[in-house]
């Protein structure tokens, strides 16, 4: 049956476009609000040396959940600090606290409303089901467009993902209040707000708190996902570890998340009936915590002023000292970090995320002619779509022109000689690759774009397949990272292999796994090794276990890129 596809995706696209434009002012208000709140919390949490916060948290955990857990808190947080994850931990705590704040602010009133009004409940319940089951990744996409790359889209996505239990449990808690108590309070002629605040809410508190506890745990579970769009913290450490297959770092950062989870869980679970309530009343403890927060905040506002002034550059001020990066494991990111050291860009941060998020951010800034600084590489379609320039790199940190190499697993030559020959002979020019990239960036399916290029370049393809024996439906597994360059090349070579009798399976992975996969033979080949500089580290660690078939493309370039309207020319101008 040949029915036209319902353009649901297109509709959502145009809806999101429309929202992005129409509510731009509102979104930038929220971005600033959330960012501001987050900064305050980070400042407050890091007001003294780590041990201050460790002691405060330990006392709080001990007070709510008995002294052994207090000691556990001290030991575990000292370990986190010792391993070097303290700053990340603060970031993660702050992200969870901000999401938690908004969850409480909105979740409880909505829950109450649901409990009081059947219609509202009937409308809200399916929405909550939808929010909880839609994969959380999906929220990240519009969030980047609305709130830009960084921590804010991560917080928004966590909020959407995590608010449901708070609403549901508030609703449930209130509905579970025994009927006779309600009748009694009605009989005494209490108004509905008296009934709510004096009877329903107090009785529902345990259930409500259980909901908040669950919501906060869910928000914490989102930190790794949020790091894909540039949220810093322990989640970013885990993501970086995956992307570079760094088992040790992954374990350390993961363990730190576990500690934070235990601490937050115990505090929120037991705060209603603290273990030592008889010794010190809850009111006193909460007041002390409140006073500490206020003192820390005041201390910050008075000491902060003069640290920022004097070091600023105009371009730094207007971009918030941010360089928008890509996947944490990319060679380009390692180069950018080295460049920041070489050029002494101490007060700048390199935002980790993904190539797609970086491009989204570029598009957004470009349409408003706002300054933006990104990590970039060529060939790339963005140079055709936007007026961009590389910043001069007088120190040569980004290396010179490079080649993209084809790497295959050992033994492929014997197992699939035809595929080996084609992979070996595969080579094209930047202009070829750009044609495929432009089509893909314009919305064409990568497979289709590859097919189109192949049809238009039969002579080139004939050279690749010359003398190659045809396959017999053997499976060839190709790996690649979702960089625009690699999406283009991998799809083209995949199609050519298919046309020559192979069954090709493509897997999209992170950088480290791409090299590791070819080296350990679990996949057959990749056409994405940028050498000699970009992927030097990966290549050095895996080269003895793989076969290098040489370059498939020459003349690539990496660097720091800005739109032409940005008034600087060299990386040195960022200082
Ligand atoms: N790149 C594109 C990759 C290689 C391909 C420059 C973003 C990297 O930095 O690892």
From TrEMBL:
<feature type="transmembrane region" description="Helical">
    <location>
        <begin position="247"/>
        <end position="264"/>
    </location>
</feature>
<dbReference type="InterPro" id="IPR007210">
    <property type="entry name" value="ABC_Gly_betaine_transp_sub-bd"/>
</dbReference>
<dbReference type="InterPro" id="IPR000515">
    <property type="entry name" value="MetI-like"/>
</dbReference>
<feature type="transmembrane region" description="Helical">
    <location>
        <begin position="136"/>
        <end position="164"/>
    </location>
</feature>
<feature type="transmembrane region" description="Helical">
    <location>
        <begin position="216"/>
        <end position="235"/>
    </location>
</feature>
<feature type="transmembrane region" description="Helical">
    <location>
        <begin position="284"/>
        <end position="302"/>
    </location>
</feature>
<dbReference type="GO" id="GO:0043190">
    <property type="term" value="C:ATP-binding cassette (ABC) transporter complex"/>
</dbReference>
<feature type="transmembrane region" description="Helical">
    <location>
        <begin position="40"/>
        <end position="61"/>
    </location>
</feature>
<feature type="transmembrane region" description="Helical">
    <location>
        <begin position="93"/>
        <end position="116"/>
    </location>
</feature>
<dbReference type="GO" id="GO:0015871">
    <property type="term" value="P:choline transport"/>
</dbReference>
<keyword id="KW-1133">Transmembrane helix</keyword>
<feature type="transmembrane region" description="Helical">
    <location>
        <begin position="67"/>
        <end position="86"/>
    </location>
</feature>
<keyword id="KW-0813">Transport</keyword>
<dbReference type="GO" id="GO:0015226">
    <property type="term" value="F:carnitine transmembrane transporter activity"/>
</dbReference>
<feature type="transmembrane region" description="Helical">
    <location>
        <begin position="15"/>
        <end position="33"/>
    </location>
</feature>
<comment type="similarity">
    <text>In the N-terminal section; belongs to the binding-protein-dependent transport system permease family.</text>
</comment>
<dbReference type="GO" id="GO:0031460">
    <property type="term" value="P:glycine betaine transport"/>
</dbReference>
<keyword id="KW-0472">Membrane</keyword>
<keyword id="KW-0812">Transmembrane</keyword>
<dbReference type="GO" id="GO:0005275">
    <property type="term" value="F:amine transmembrane transporter activity"/>
</dbReference>
<keyword id="KW-1003">Cell membrane</keyword>
<comment type="similarity">
    <text>Belongs to the binding-protein-dependent transport system permease family.</text>
</comment>
<protein>
    <submittedName>
        <fullName>Glycine/betaine ABC transporter substrate-binding protein</fullName>
    </submittedName>
</protein>
<feature type="domain" description="ABC transmembrane type-1">
    <location>
        <begin position="89"/>
        <end position="268"/>
    </location>
</feature>
<dbReference type="Pfam" id="PF00528">
    <property type="entry name" value="BPD_transp_1"/>
</dbReference>
<dbReference type="Pfam" id="PF04069">
    <property type="entry name" value="OpuAC"/>
</dbReference>
<dbReference type="InterPro" id="IPR035906">
    <property type="entry name" value="MetI-like_sf"/>
</dbReference>
């Amino acid at each position: 049956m040949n029915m036209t596809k319902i353009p649901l995706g297109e509709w959502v696209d145009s809806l999101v476009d429309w929202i992005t434009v129409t509510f731009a002012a509102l979104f930038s208000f929220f971005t600033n609000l959330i960012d501001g709140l987050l900064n305050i919390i980070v400042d407050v949490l890091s007001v003294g040396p780590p041990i201050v916060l460790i002691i405060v948290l330990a006392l709080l955990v001990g007070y709510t959940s008995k002294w052994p857990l207090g000691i556990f808190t001290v030991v575990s947080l000292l370990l986190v600090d010792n391993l070097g994850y303290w700053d990340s931990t603060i970031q993660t705590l702050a992200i969870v606290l901000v999401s938690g704040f908004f969850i409480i602010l909105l979740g409880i009133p909505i829950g109450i409303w649901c409990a009081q009004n059947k219609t509202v409940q009937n409308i809200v319940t399916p929405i909550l089901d939808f929010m909880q089951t839609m994969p959380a990744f999906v929220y990240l996409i519009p969030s980047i467009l609305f709130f830009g790359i960084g921590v804010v889209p991560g917080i928004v996505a966590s909020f959407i993902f995590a608010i449901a239990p708070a609403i549901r449990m508030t609703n449930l808690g209130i509905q579970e209040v025994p009927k006779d108590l309600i009748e009694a309070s009605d009989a005494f002629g209490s108004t509905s707000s008296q009934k709510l605040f004096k009877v329903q809410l107090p009785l529902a508190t345990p259930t409500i708190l259980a909901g908040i506890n669950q919501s906060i745990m869910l928000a914490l579970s989102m930190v790794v996902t949020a790091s894909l769009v540039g949220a810093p913290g322990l989640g970013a450490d885990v993501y970086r570890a995956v992307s570079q297959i760094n088992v040790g770092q992954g374990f350390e950062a993961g363990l730190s998340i576990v500690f934070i989870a235990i601490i937050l869980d115990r505090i929120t679970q037991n705060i209603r009936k603290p273990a030592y309530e008889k010794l010190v009343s809850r009111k006193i403890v909460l007041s002390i915590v409140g006073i500490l927060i206020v003192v820390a905040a005041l201390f910050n506002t008075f000491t902060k002023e003069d640290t920022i002034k004097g070091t600023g550059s105009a371009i730094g001020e207007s971009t918030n000292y941010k360089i928008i990066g890509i996947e944490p494991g990319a060679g380009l990111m390692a180069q950018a970090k080295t460049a920041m050291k070489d050029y002494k860009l101490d007060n700048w941060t390199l935002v980790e995320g993904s190539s797609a998020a970086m491009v989204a951010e570029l598009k957004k800034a470009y349409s408003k002619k706002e300054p933006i600084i990104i990590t970039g590489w060529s060939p790339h379609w963005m140079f055709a779509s936007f007026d961009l320039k590389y910043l001069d790199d007088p120190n040569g940190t980004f290396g010179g022109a490079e080649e993209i190499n084809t790497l295959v697993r050992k033994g492929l030559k014997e197992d699939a000689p035809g595929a080996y020959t084609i992979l070996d002979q595969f080579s094209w020019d930047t202009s070829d690759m750009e044609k495929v990239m432009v089509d893909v960036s314009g919305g064409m399916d990568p497979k289709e774009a590859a097919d189109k290029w192949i049809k238009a370049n039969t002579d080139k393809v004939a050279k690749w397949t010359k003398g190659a024996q045809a396959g017999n439906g053997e499976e060839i597994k190709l790996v690649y990272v979702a960089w625009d360059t690699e999406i283009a090349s991998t799809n083209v070579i995949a199609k050519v292999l298919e046309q020559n009798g192979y069954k090709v399976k493509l897997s999209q992975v992170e950088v480290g796994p791409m090299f590791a996969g070819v080296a350990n033979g679990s996949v057959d080949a990749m056409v994405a090794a940028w050498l000699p500089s970009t992927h030097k580290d990966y290549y050095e660690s895996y080269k003895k276990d793989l076969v290098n078939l040489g370059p498939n493309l020459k003349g690539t370039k990496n660097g720091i890129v800005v739109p032409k309207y940005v008034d600087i020319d060299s990386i040195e101008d960022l200082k």
